[in-house]
Amino acid sequence: MPDLIADVAAARPDATALVCGDVRLTYRELLGRADALAARLREAGMRPGFRVGLLLPRSPEMGIAALAVCARAARTFRWTGPTRTPASRTWPRPPAPGCC
Questions:
Q1: Tens digits of per-residue pLDDT, 67-100?
Q2: Beta bridge partners of 25
């Protein structure tokens, strides 16, 4: 998935990448924010192979953080949470107001 996002961002950087309520980010903005967070994580000592947990509600910040961790800082990602099904759409919390 991160490669797909990078490919679209290279081809269409000003296209809408993320919408959540009133927040709209282009691919350029999404990758810029993800790269900034990834740089801070690397400065804090994060390296490939480190485990990083994300506990955020569904929000633009969750998308940015997930992209920063899996594609921009550590370059790896492994889902360790429960599998989401339609019956568990609100796990662990409902989406942020106006989002998703």
A1: 888 876 655 555 555 555 444 444 445 555 555 4
A2: 18
Full-model pTM: 0.70
CB count, 10 Å around CB of 63? 22
Cβ neighbours of residue 36 under 8 Å, at least 6 residues apart? none
CA–CA gap between residue 60 and residue 29 (Å, rounded): 11
CA 11 → CA 14, 25, 29, 42, 62, distances in Å? 9, 16, 14, 27, 24
Give the single-character DSSP code of 49.
T
Candidates 3.40.50.980, 3.40.50.720, 3.40.30.10, 1.20.140.10; correct CATH number of 2-79?
Answer: 3.40.50.980
